[in-house]
Amino acid sequence: MKREDVPFLLRQASDRLPEPELADAAWAAGVAHRRRQRRSIIAGLIALLLVVVTGVLVMTLGGGKGAITPPVTTPTPPGYVPPAGQISGIAYWNAPPAGSERFLDRVTTPLGELLQLPTDAGDLKTNPVDRIAAVTLAAQGSGYVPLFLGAEGHWARASRELHPIVTGWPLSSGSIAPNGKLVAFPQPSGVYVIDASTSQARQIALPVEDIRSVSWLANSTRLLVSGPGTAYQLNVDLETAKQPVVGGVAVSNDAEDATAPYRLDGVAGQVALRQYAGNNGWVEVSSPRLPVDRWIGQTFAAGNLVGRMFVAARLPQVPTVASAAQALAAISTLEPRDDRLLVLGETPAATPTPGRTSPDRIREPGCCFLLGWYDSQTALFQVTDWLLAWNLQTGKVRRVAELDVDGLALGPGIRG
After folding, report:
1. Mean predicted confidence (pLDDT) in 358-375
2. Overall average pLDDT of the 268-286 stretch
3. Residue 337 phi/psi, 5° resolution?
C-alpha cells in the first residue's frame, strides 16, 4: 500500500460509520447534571436541618447557660404593688390611709379635680347629653332636680322635680343605663326614667310605695327596681305611653341586693355570687369565702369581674380598735385565683403616747361603696368625700376627684 492511498482509505471507512445525534447527547448530559445538582441541594438542606434540630435540643435539654427555660414569674406591670397577704385564701391589698387621698396620683376624667354642683347648667331640652359621665341632684324646694354631666364635661339640667323617697335622696348608684343615655330615678310607688339624649321622660307606676334601688340589664331596656322585701323587672319604652309589663323577681331584705347581671350577697359562710337569669331568678355561680358582716351599696360587673363593698367581720390580718375594716371585693366569674380584696382599715396614731390606743382616723361603716368600673380592670369607689380608682392589675389606688355633692351615679362617659 502506498502512502498516498491512506487518506482515500480513511475517508472510505468513515463514510460507513453512523452520524452521532449531538443534540440528544447534549440534552442527556444536561439532565444528568441537573439531577446531580438537585440531589446535592437536598442533601445539604437535610444536613442543615439536622444541625439546627440538634442545636435546639442541646440548648433546651443541656441545662447549660444557653438553655431555654420558661419564666418562673409573670411579668409585673409598671407601678405594681404587691399584695399585703391573703384573707380566706384571697389576695388582699391595703388601701391608702384616710387623709392621704389628695396626695395620690390622679386619674383624669370629666369630673375634674373637684366635683361641685354647676351654676351654669343648660336646659336638657336644648343641651342634650348623649353619653353621661355622672348624675347628681340639686335640692329645690321640697324636691330635687336631676343634673347630668356629659363625657365632654358640660352640664345639663332637667326640668322635672323629683320627690324624695323613704331614704330621702331619690338617686341610686345603678341609675345610669349601660348605653349612657337613659337614667332611672326611684320614686314613691314608681320609677321616673329620662332619656338624656332626647329629654324624653315618663313615670312608671309600681304596686309598692317604698322603692329605693334600680339596676339596668346590659340591653339598656330592661330594669330591675327594688325596695326592702320587694323587687320587679320591667321593660322601658319611652316611645309609648302604655304601662310596661311588671314582673316580680326574687326579693331580699336589702333593697340594693337586686342587681343585674350579677349580685353578691349573703354573710360569712353563706356568701354567693349569682347571675340573673330572667324568669328563673338568680342562679348561683360560686361561693367565695368572704368574711362579710354586711354589704354596702350595689353590685357592679365589668367583663369577668364582679365587685361590691362590705363591712368585714373581725380580721386578724387588719386589726382595728374603734371600727370595723371595710373591703372592696372583686370576684371573678371564671377563675377564683383572680379574686381580689382591697381593705380599708384605720389610720394609726401618728405619735402614740403611753396608754393611747385610739387611731388618728377611722372610716365609719357605710362611708365607702362601689360606684362602678372605669374599665374592666379598674374599680371606682367612693370613700367619704373622695372618688378613688383601684387597678386590679397593679394593686395601685389613685384619686379621681374630690366630691362636693351629696350623691352620685356614674355612667360610661366617665372615660371621656
Report:
1. 92
2. 91
3. -70, -15
Q: Of 115, 149, 105, whose CA–CA distance to 402 is shortest?
A: 115
CA distances (Å), origin 339, targets 103, 289, 359: 28, 10, 30
Q: How far is CA 320 from CA 135, 194, 218, 260, 316, in A?
A: 35, 44, 39, 34, 9
Q: Beta strands 326-332 and 340-344: pairing type?
A: antiparallel
- Residues 235-267 have pLDDT tens digits of 998 888 777 878 888 888 899 999 999 999 999
| Residue found by looking up cell 391608702 in the block | 96
CA proximity to 327, closest of 377, 373, 408, 381: 381
Q: Residue 388's beta-bridge partner residues?
A: 381, 399
- Maximum separation of any 2 CA atoms in the chain, in Å: 150
Closest CA to 172 of 75, 82, 260: 260
> What is the DSSP-derived secondary structure letter of residue 396?
-
Q: Is residue 402 within 8 Å of residue 386, measured between CB atoms?
A: yes
Spatial distance between the Cα atoms of 205 and 211, rounded to a whole number of angstroms: 11
| 88, 291 contact by CB (below 8 A) | yes
Identify the DSSP state of 256: G
Q: Tell if the pTM clears 0.70, that is, is over it.
A: yes
Give tens-digit pLDDT for 80-113: 999 999 999 999 999 999 999 999 999 999 999 9
